[in-house]
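Workshop exercise sheet. Pairs work together: one partner reads the sequence aloud, the other fills in the structure field after running the prediction. Swap roles for the next sheet.
Pair: D.N. / O.F.
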Amino acid sequence: MNVKIEKFILGPIETNAYLVVNEHQKAFLVDPSDNPSDVVTFINDNNIVLESIVITHGHFDHIMGIPELVKKYPDVKVYISKGEELLLKEPRFNGSLMLGVQFTYDGEVFELTEGEMTIGSFKVKVIFVPGHSPAGTAILIENNLLCGDILFAGSIGRADLLGGNEELLVNGIKSKLMVLPDETVVCPGHGGRTTIARERKANPYL
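Structure field:
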């Protein structure tokens, strides 16, 4: 299967959402932030079937688009790791209070489990790297690593938020992500893409 990945920059702090589409026009969406209207337009214009929403972690800027998308596509399933579920329900944990809102999502969710997993029409590898958040998750599909706020080009996720731990984060990146093939494309939650080879060589935090 050859997937295409479309990037959308959404929400108040320019969060990257990624739409992963296969040759049958089935798709899952990673980390929809607020006002995902561009994603909806793209899905509808290209006759894409959105099967799932996958959340790398429960901070507000990665989850606030869920209700709008579930309303538009009622068959969509929302996936998140067990350790991040509380953030969906608690504004003090997901950070939405910083925007002056109390965002919660209490719809049905499905559990991401570490290792090989089938999500809708896709076979992916789920990798847990806590430290930016309690149970941050990266999704590996083909040679693409959709890693939320775990790893950035030249940086790593901040660890000073509730549930953060820099030692855990750095150790997890080194032991679980830096062992991936050099050519693995890193698709982070903010900023531009990079590769595992580039981060292994030049990331000052590692």
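Discussion prompt: The chain is about 20% helix and 30% strand. What would you look at next?
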